[in-house]
Specification:
The chain is an alpha+beta fold and about 100 residues long. It is built from two helices and five strands, in the order αβαββββ. The protein starts with a helix and ends with a strand. It comes from Candidatus Afipia apatlaquensis.
């Protein structure tokens, strides 16, 4: 199967205990945000994620997200080290169940 048929839609992985504390069920539509903006995607409960950590994998095009704004909405454009290398981004975000 292709990646799209296997994954189906953009998701964010959340530890089951964190999800329960926020009244988020597996598959719920959630809003992820920070000072840069907000995006909507679906929660995926996964006990392989550390508590307090959210993971949004893959590179979905913006049009795959409900509002047309993808994960990079939450990511800065800080330059990489002066001698090159890959740019990795960890971003502080909040999460809540969408109404």
């Amino acid at each position: 199967p292709t990646s799209l048929s296997r994954e189906q839609r953009p998701t964010v992985m959340i530890h089951p205990d964190d999800a329960a504390a926020l009244s988020i069920a597996d598959g719920d539509k959630v809003i992820l945000g920070n000072e840069r903006g907000e995006i909507r995607l679906h929660a995926k409960s996964f006990d392989g994620v550390l508590r307090g950590v959210l993971i949004a994998e893959s590179i979905w095009p913006n049009h795959a997200y409900e509002d047309g704004r993808g994960i990079n909405t939450l990511t800065g454009a800080d330059p990489i080290a002066p001698y090159g290398g890959a740019a990795f981004h960890d971003n502080r975000v909040w999460i809540r169940r969408a109404a």
